[in-house]
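Chapter review. Work through the record for Biotin-dependent carboxyltransferase before attempting the end-of-chapter questions.
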Amino acid sequence: MLESGQFLLLKGGILSSVQDAGRQGTSHLGLARSGAMDRHAWAWNNRLLNNPWGEATLEIYIGGLEGVFSQETSVVITGAELPIWLNDQPQAPWTVFRCRAGDRLRLGYAHAGQIAYLGVKGGWQLPREIGESRSSVLREGLGGPGNQGQPLAAGEQLSYRIDASPLWHRTLATKFRPQYHTPVLDLAFLPAQYLSDWEVQQLKHLFATGWRVSSASNRMACLLEPASPETNRSNAEPAPTRLSEGLALGSLQLPPSGQPMILMNEHQTIGGYPMLGWVCRRSLDRLAQCRPGQALALVLADRAEQLKAEIEFQAFFRQG
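Structure tokens for Biotin-dependent carboxyltransferase:
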């Protein structure tokens, strides 16, 4: 009796990859943690399917993915707002639905947000690599089908466990779904404790300036550009030299170009650019969904409140 099915990709989409909770404990090896960029949408994907924390999903930028299921399973799509069709019949997002043998799933293109997550009951069954993770990292050629870290492409097949149990219809109420139509997104920010006089001045400028997401942003970093060209500080006083140091997710660095960057899931593990503080974890999930041109503002965060929010997030999504 077959125990697994295959999802044959007919179209890989704009940029699609396999992502889970990311690699833990590998920074000392110089390896990126990777993992789902929008942890909130990814975690809800697994919860709606009653999968345990950490199961792999397909992370799909903008959309355009299409494939055929060889065997029955339960599916849910969360994250960016995009049209979903199963055999040309519209399907609801954030809602579990059934796919049977021969069914064709097709995703349109996002009109709000930019990352969608496609999950199946039991998760996608790829080998776990370094750090016990299935996550793909293009730069390091690690994870994904064939452990090459490449974007998903037409012709590839992804294994999943067959799920023929009665459909457990679960949906996330609209009022609990994130709203990706935001004129200005506030980012909770914690300044570094030890800053030079030069860094303090740069920090004041960061808080006083309107920012937007640059088109050069990627899974490594979200680059910021001033909302008004006249506020560009590329010719400002050069930064003092400093030794390289370990970097954490959400670190806000200021390179010589004067263009701030917020380190995302595939960031380098050490760096010597001035580091002014950190964008808090829950804000990073929302930042991951921002398209180029999205207006941003840094907001001073309360450390205790941010810690409490993260503990509550972990407790809710990790419970059995």
